[in-house]
Amino acid sequence: MIKTNYLILIFSICCAAIGFSQTGTVTGKITTKDGETLPMAYVYSKNSSSYYTESDENGKYALTLPEGKHTLLISILGYLKQEQQIQVFSGKTITLNIALEEDPDMLLEDVSVTGKSILKDVQESAFNVVAVDAQPLHNTTLDISQALERVSGVRVRRTGGVGSDMNVMLNGFTGRHVKFFIDGIPMEGFSSAFQLNNIPINLAKRVEVYKGVVPITFGSDALGGAINIVTENGKQNFIDASYSYGSFNTHKSFVNAAYTADSGFTARLTAFQNYSDNDYKVDADILNLDTNIYSGEIREVRRFHDMYRNYTLMGKIGFVNKSFADQLLLGFTWGDEYNQVQHPAYMKIAFGDKYTTSQTLMPNLTYRKKDLFTKNLDVSLSANYNFGENANIDDSTRRYNWLGEYVDTDEPGEFNYTRMFFKNRNGAVNTNVTYTVNEKHAITVNNVLNTFSRKSRNEVEPSAADAYPSETLKNILGLGYKYKMNEKLDVSLFSKYYYNQVGQYADPESDGEYEHLTTATKELGYGGAASYFILENLQAKASYEKAYRLPTARELFGAGNDFELGNTDLKPESSDNFNFGANYNWVMNSKNSLNLDASFIYRDIKDFIRQVVSPSTGTLQPGNEAKVQNRGVDFEARYNYSDFFTAGASFTYQNLRNKLKYRTGRTVVSTIYDDRIPNMPYLYGNADFSFFFKNIRNKEDRLSLSYNLLYIHEFDYSWSSYGGRKIPTQVAHDIYVNYSMKNGKYNVSLECTNILNEDLYDNFSLQKPGRAFAIKLRYFLDKF
Fold first, then answer.
1. Which of the 8 DSSP states describes residue 608?
2. Which residues form the signal peptide (predicted)?
3. What fold characterizes domain 129-781?
4. Sequence-distant (≥ 6) Cβ neighbours of residue 32 within 8 angstroms
5. Where are the beta strands (DSSP E) in 129-232?
6. Per mean pLDDT, which of 153-162, 290-299, 607-616 is the most reliable?
7. CA 216 to CA 80: how far, in whole Å?
8. Is the pLDDT of residue 19 over 60?
């Protein structure tokens, strides 16, 4: 019933919008007085700052505005701001070309001009957020998760090579504590075929990392923060195609294309695939298959059953910049994934035949409209429903060791004899309404509804319970208020109402009569964020949230792969989150600039959910830690010299500790009281530098040389008071070389990751790939 009501709401608003809103478009080109194009110039309406755009690399821009009079403001660093009065007529397009004069106080000879962009606007908001420009990384083979490792406070943890499970650690929170979005749409219900570890970086225009408190517009129960992937929606017509080949027989290909007609009709298509044998070398103990005894001698062996492949196709069709919608898109995502399983959650056991599969078919709807019904009333809606199919196959009668040797056995199943098939159904509707009262005040209402249903079928051991689904329904209603007194002070206040319902069918009397049992949780959260410019280039930020996180369907019911088990007894987490930060941007002169960013966090968490590994079986299961506390700091610095050189470094320290002094019914202090939470890096950082050379053969060619370093300090595998081993300190070095021709139309890149072939480890000491090489060819056409 709830889902039906939301669909009716979407349909009604979209239909009503057709008759009530009238807009026009202003287009043009921004240049210097000498006629040179100015990319990344900021164009916005002074009447309402919610209407803005940037000029592209050719200086061109297009901005849709409500009918009536407007004052346009055009600005970019190094040039005098310019205002233009215009009259916008419904359904009409007017042309306005702008020529800007140089700012006499800033001589910009040989300087790369980068105006106050949308990227910078995001970073200057009241929230503790880092906006990463993804476009300079489009010539690399990185996926989005790998690009995130360059952000202070972020640590991406993987179980292996290409396509392996991963989770993001953000200021001490990890896994499901951190929520993911794509263009503001929750990714919680997306399948494993479409996740950060297999989405190419080329899909993203920028990636926004919110640390701690998250804006109300996301409507999320993110306890630790959120990551929003912003795709390319500004360019009207373009083609971006690439192919790469690398070590371990790794192939990656990507195509992203869009076409927008003058009428506003638009069509977009994205396709990508990843394939790898993942046959890198690891250190392992060898099982003697005859005696069933491990040798005790660690040997270097090659992984032999870890092949991964996935295909993903996304399409969208609809209209943009129309009177009834700024954006109205109908689309779909299709995905197919095959993943061989080499080992469980630890590397002692080796498999040779076990595998999993995943299929996705997800229709989706996106609607956005500014000035709906009345001026300054902005509405956005997104809805998707995932028809997911998953399989977990373990029916081999062989037993393997790490040399790839095997013996035949009488009992099938390398780990747990099964041929399990799942039907996962995920639905999500995100509704956001913002009313800007005036230049100082704005009110936002947001609601996010998520539904999940899973039916399973085991061909090996059928059960009457297979006919009954496991279900969850989660709804988060938010109310926000924004106050912007002037260009210095920005304040946001919000509250959230959380509702979570978990349903399962059970046979309590074991008589074949199944009952539908449900439990419900209701919580009220609240918080606020503020920023203040102490100086023109010095900003201070502070935020607080009484936050709640509801267990996800995966945590409640498991991943369906034998290794990651569920726990329906999980309690919701709650946390008092405090964040303090400062940013200083020093433009020394026309060539030199330095940016410094520092932040401090404090978290007081109850019922902290973390994965615990079983030492005997290698399985993972989530559980609650009653009381956990975290204090941490982030620091990041970046220096730029003209458009020739850039260098940066960041480090993160977090002190995540168990603060339960007495266990229930005990009077003796707990042995692990004040221990660090195990399997959590607490000190890590990275550094990088790049050189950019122009006019290599002609004015249209460029060469870039880049270096990246990753450092992780040693950390405990288990509770330190119980003794046990540590995960050793790790250092990795990567280098990248890119040659671009015809202003980026043709690109060739070479890269080497972990160039010194260091041993790298991650979740529960799982070993990651050593030295790897790759070459990437990319073609980019931004107009046709």
1. E
2. 1-16
3. Maltoporin; Chain A (2.40.170)
4. 38, 79, 99, 100, 102
5. 129-133, 154-158, 166-170, 178-182, 185-186, 204-211, 225-231
6. 290-299
7. 35
8. no
Lowest mean pLDDT among 3-12, 257-266, 426-435: 3-12
Question: Cβ(146)–Cβ(162) under 8 Å?
Answer: no
How far apart are the two ends of the chain, measured CA to CA in Å?
46
Q: Which whole-number Å values give the CA distances from 658 to 157, 622, 672, 712, 719, in the listed order?
A: 22, 16, 7, 22, 10
Q: What is the pLDDT of residue 764?
A: 61
Q: What is the CATH number of domain 2-112?
A: 2.60.40.1120
Cβ-in-10-Å burial (0-12, 13-18, 19+) of 225 comes to buried
Task: Count the neighbouring beta carbons within 10 Å of the beta carbon of residue 99.
Answer: 16
Q: Residue 756: what pLDDT?
A: 96
> In whole angstroms, what is the distance from residue 207 CA to residue 134 CA?
7
CA–CA separation, 104 and 549 (whole Å):
53
What is the Cα gyration radius of the chain?
Answer: 27
Distance CA 347, CA 342 (A): 9
pLDDT in tens, 571-605: 999 999 999 999 999 989 888 999 999 999 999 99
Cβ atoms 162, 274 nearer than 8 A: yes
For residue range 109-121, what is the model confidence (pLDDT) as tens digits? 333 333 345 566 6
H or E segment at 17? helix 2-20
Dist CA 294 CA 393 (whole Å): 26
pLDDT of residue 127 exceeding 90: no
Per domain, the residue ranges of the chain are 2-112, 129-781
Cα gap 538→772, rounded to integer Å:
41
Digit-coded pLDDT (tens) for 646-672: 999 999 999 999 999 998 888 899 999
Measured CA to CA, the distance from residue 181 to residue 775 in angstroms comes to 30
Q: Which of 739, 727, 728, 735 has the alpha carbon at shortest distance from 751?
A: 735
Amino acid 556: pLDDT: 87
